[in-house]
């Protein structure tokens, strides 16, 4: 299965998502989007394939979102894409592309819908058990 993850290694959610992909027995194509930002056309295509708006792909925390006035609902998609192109940190992560679709994997478990079965237990960095020793998703309380 061919999988691509738009990844930020400094992000725990992104690291957990990458680890879940690998726990399914897949070595994905890892795109560190801060080093190699996707172009405007690709960002638009990713949003369309994920069924979300460009605005839905914006990250506020730890970015120049407020300083750039991006909360202004009158901004067009082209203006938002300009901001992402200028400041790739504005692109929320991780975005994962697989033959089953495209998803913004927040929380990281959202990636499970894009993957084959997990191959064993998985525990997030924060200690939360997500997959049991049989590769089955653990029910949350």
From TrEMBL:
Family designation: Belongs to the ArsC family.
Top-rank lineage group of the source organism: Bacteria
What EC number(s) are associated with this protein in UniProt?
Answer: 1.20.4.1
Q: What is this protein called?
A: Arsenate reductase
| Catalytic reactions on record | [glutaredoxin]-dithiol + arsenate + glutathione + H(+) = glutathionyl-S-S-[glutaredoxin] + arsenite + H2O
Keyword Disulfide bond in record: no
Q: Give one GO molecular function term.
A: arsenate reductase (glutaredoxin) activity
Source organism: Methylobacterium adhaesivum
Which major enzyme category is it? oxidoreductase
Name the gene.
Answer: arsC
> Which keywords label this protein?
Arsenical resistance, Oxidoreductase
